[in-house]
Amino acid sequence: MVAAKVYLVRTLAKLNALFGRGQVVSVGVILLAGLAASLAFLVFMNSAAPNTITIAGGPSGSVFQKNAEKYKKILAREGVTLKILPSEGSVDNLRKLSDPKVKVDVGFVQGGEVKGTAPANLVSLGSVSYQPLMIFNAANPKPCFPTSRAKGWTSARKAAARARWR
């Protein structure tokens, strides 16, 4: 017991010599430094990426839903759980992303849905794919070039064959 008291007195004397102040100030500085280090550690841990992400997919069987399933498999390999929230499509995904009451982190939205007035709290992460524009006209049907015959053809030969079909 006497050895413990001697050790404590020597430690406090070393702190007093180190900081040049009284024992209360020395212990206070050490406690304050420990509190600051603990706070910095907690802030760092809370800034880590989430383990669970919620995505606004699309109707069952849609391209949005299939892409969400692909992302679910990819993120699962990295230890991230992806919750897929079904939706009615691009407009519904945009509505869910804009509404802070709906807990959706990401979603698929077709280009041009916003029509120039992007919501302030949304950011586009980029394009996933392009969707082709298809125009059908039944008023003046013309025979089109049968692409099934063009397997193995060079691009020049295909262009020449298309020109003959016009």
Strands side by side in the biggest sheet: 2-1-3
Write down the secondary-structure element order: HHEHEHEH
Compute the separation of the termini in Å.
Answer: 105 Å
Number of strands: 3
Overall structural class, as computed from helix and strand content, comes to mainly alpha
Q: Estimate the mean pLDDT confidence.
A: 78
Task: Work out the helix count.
Answer: 5
Shape: elongated
SS strand fraction = 5-15%
**What's the alpha carbon Rg, rounded to whole Å?**
33 Å
Question: Spans of 5+ residues with little confidence (pLDDT < 50)?
Answer: none
Q: Indicate the percent of residues in helices.
A: 40-55%
Largest sheet: 3 strands, parallel
Transmembrane segments: 24-44
Keywords: Membrane, Transmembrane, Transmembrane helix
